[in-house]
Amino acid sequence: MDQDICIKITSGYFTWTDGPPTLCNVDINIPFGKLTMIVGQVGCGKSSLLLAALGEMQRVSGTVTWNSLPNLESEGDESPTDRDAASDGDIRTRGAVAYASQKPWLLNATLVENITFEMPMIKPRYKAVIEACSLQPDIDILPQGDQTEIGERGIILSGGQKQRISVARALYQQTNLVFLDDPFSALDIHLSDHLMQDGILKMLREEKRTVVLVTHKLQYLPHADWIIAMKDGTIQTEGTLKDIQNSEPELFEQWKTLMHREDQEFETETVAASMTDLERKNLRRAMYSREAGRTEEDEEDESVESDDDDNLSQVMRQRATIPWRSCGTYLSSAGLLLLTLLLLSQLLKHTLMVTIDYWLAHWTSHVIAAKIDATAKNCTIVQDCGFSHSWYLSVFSVLCCLGIILCLATSVAVEWTGLKVAKELHHNLLNKIILAPMRLFETTPLGSILNRFSTDTNTIDQHIPTTLECLSRSTLLCVSALGVISYVTPVFLIALLPLAVTCYFIQKYFRVASRDLQQLEDSTQLPLLSHFSETVEGLTTIRALRYEPRFRQRLLQFTDANNIASLFLTAANRWLEVRMEYVGACVVLVAACSLHH
Predict the structure, then answer these.
(1) Which of 150, 168, 247, 492 stands 20 to 30 A from 439 (CA)?
(2) Mainly localized where (predicted)?
């Protein structure tokens, strides 16, 4: 392949699905170190052509050949003859491409992090990029300047501001190849002209970078070194502007008419108010509103905080307790009928369990008494003395059948209650999200909302009903066991007080740690979900820049952090289980000693 050609597509057919090809018979050459413009009507496949070159589309036939150059920071004595040719079969070996998509993709991070995008901070270069994209007036409005977190997907910014940040990221990346997909679509004519002159023609050309620009701004065609015209998914023509003027005079006349019309629009917008001024006014208003809200919150916090010790104790009390309002909301969602059924089934089941234990003890004691009586009467078989197991066995069988029925009824009541509560709370959450003001989505990351609908809903749906059933079962079992033991061996009541105090301190210590660990697990899961959301949305940009290892490593870090938090929470539960087993063993020991004496 010619060493002056950066990308060459020959007889290319590309598609997004298994249907007919989106791009047909594509034959293009993109030269090294030149400004290539791709123009055409809306929907003719300009953006798809960029993505096809990046390997994002499914290739039906044809070849895509890359001549790769090292990035700017590693470029030195390497000559053009050292360029590696990468065919479509190993397109993964191509170099990094700075790609600004038509729909801007931003990280939930600071503005400077969105621009540098994992690259080292070079202040002169950073300032030049900010100036080329006219971002300094917008940065001056932000409360922390370029250190302001602009929110997930840049949601506090306008479309034009997001677009300029996305383009600034592409300009800042030190790659030899830059793909700009319609960067002027959300900009007014003045900003478009400034970005074209200072960003593309000045900055990128001075660095001799290969630029592929998709645009509808035909007035910039005279600046293009190479032009690719598309129509209905095919290449209509390509070449310099002078070549197209000679080979396609009708197309050139159409462009000339449109360029004249755009020049008139430029003169009109010079007199009219600029769209950028309106965007900055809206941004300033949003910042003032947010700062006012934060000021009110700070004043409320100051009025609550009398001193550090009181505040610390208040926080600890809040962590150690679960709001009764939350419990009331959960129980009220179940309804009075289900709660009554659940409570009644639990009481009847445990009453029956105690009755079964009592009947077995009664049966056993009568058997022992019958054996003693048989020995006294010299009977070889207990039945010969008039004792029969049939009555006890019949009653025991009836009690067991009732126990099975009550266990089934309790399980149905628990699952029915959990299903109704989960359904009710999910509908309430969904309604509140749908009816929420836009401010909620401006200040709340998408991962946090997803966490409510995934992890929290899963907890309400699967964990809380079983935990509630286990709590009620354990409570009733404990009360019944203590009652029976105290009735049989009243001496046990002396040891009950220290055991109760021990249980109290164990649960008090555990509840504080358990709640903090649960919050830690939730807090580590939120960045993981946000990272998933951001990565999926920006996969094209990430793959174009060859940043997959960085995002994969970050994903592993978030996953490890969440797994560690989950491990700590599980270990805390096992810690409680072991200590409660010790307490139970002490109860058995005291009861046995009481019976022995």
Answers:
(1) 168
(2) membrane
200/477 Cα distance (integer angstroms): 76
Handedness of CA 109, 114, 117, 119 (dihedral sign): negative
User: What gap in Å lies between CA 164 and CA 145, rounded to an integer?
Assistant: 16
Asked if residues 21 and 13 have their Cβ atoms less than 8 Å apart, the reply is: yes
Helix, coil or strand: residue 76: coil
DSSP-derived secondary structure for 481-512: HHHHHHHH-TTHHHHHHHHHHHHHHHHHHHHH
Tokens standing for 132?
Answer: 């080329």
Q: What is the DSSP letter of 103?
A: S
Alpha carbon distance 572, 552 (integer Å): 30
Residue labelled with tokens 């209509």: 236
Listed by start position, the domains of the chain span 322-485, 489-597
Three-state DSSP at 463 gives helix
Range list of H helices, 195-274: 205-206, 241-247, 249-271
Report pLDDT for 449.
Answer: 82
For 173, the 3-state DSSP assignment is coil
Sequential DSSP letters for 369-394: HHHHHHHHTT-SSGGGGT--SHHHHH
Does the CA dihedral 440-446-447-450 come out positive or negative? positive
Residues pairing with 9 in the sheet: 28, 64
Calpha distance 345→401 (Å, rounded): 15
Contacts of 302 (CB under 8 A, 6+ apart): none
By DSSP bridging, strand 226-231 and strand 35-40 are parallel
SS3 call for 546 = coil
Burial call 215-239: b when 16+ CB within 10 Å, e when fewer: bebbbbbeebebbbbbeebebeebb
Phi, psi of 35 (to 5 degrees): -95, 110
β-bridge mates for residue 411, sequence order: none
What the block records as the tokens of 187 is: 């900009």
Contacts of 589 (CB under 8 A, 6+ apart): none
Q: Which residue in 469, 557, 572 sits closest to 518, CA to CA?
A: 572
Neighbours of 33 (CB within 10 A): 16
How far is residue 423 CA from its own chain's centroid?
23
Cα separation, 177 vs 98, in Å, equals 6
For residues 28 and 228, the answer to whether their CB atoms sit within 8 Å is yes
The residue assigned the tokens 């990468």 is 86
If DSSP codes are grouped into helix, strand and coil, which group holds residue 177?
A: strand
What is residue 134's three-state secondary structure? coil
The alpha-carbon radius of gyration of the chain (Å, integer) is 37
CA distance 91 to 9: 12
Instruction: Give the N- to C-terminal CA distance of the chain in Å, as an integer.
Output: 100
Model pTM?
0.68
Give the span between the Cα atoms of 378 and 389, in whole angstroms.
Answer: 20
Q: Count the neighbouring beta carbons within 10 Å of the beta carbon of residue 154.
A: 22
